[in-house]
Amino acid sequence: MTKLLVSKTNPTGHTLEDVMRMIRGDIITRVNEMHSDNRPEVQEVITNNMYVLGLMEQIIAHAESSSEIMKRIYGQSQG
User: CB 3.0–4.6 Å: which of 42, 52, 54, 73 could bond 37 by disulfide?
Assistant: First the structure.
């Protein structure tokens, strides 16, 4: 069973959306550190990271929806 996410055997774990928010924050920090580097390779990495951030927003929204459903079913977060 997972060691990171909330589950019956890991009630103090993180929700998927919280993990994704942590990763999102790391990506944003990385992009901020690289934003003034005009080398084409770095700009491509920034573009890729921005695309990933857009996908992560979708992942977070779906994870939040699932967490709300699980709360209604089980009365607490199950990841």
Answer: 42
Averaged over 1-29, what is the pLDDT?
A: 91
50 CA to centre of own chain: 13
Q: What average pLDDT does this structure show over 37-54?
A: 97
The answer to whether 33 and 26 are in contact (CB under 8 A) is no
- The CA distance from 13 to 31, in Å, is 28
Closest to 30 measured CA to CA, from 53, 58, 2, 64: 53
What's the average model confidence in pLDDT over 4-27?
Answer: 92
Q: What are 33's two structure tokens?
A: 């550190």
CA–CA gap between residue 47 and residue 13 (Å, rounded): 32
pTM: predicted TM-score of the whole model, two decimal places: 0.81
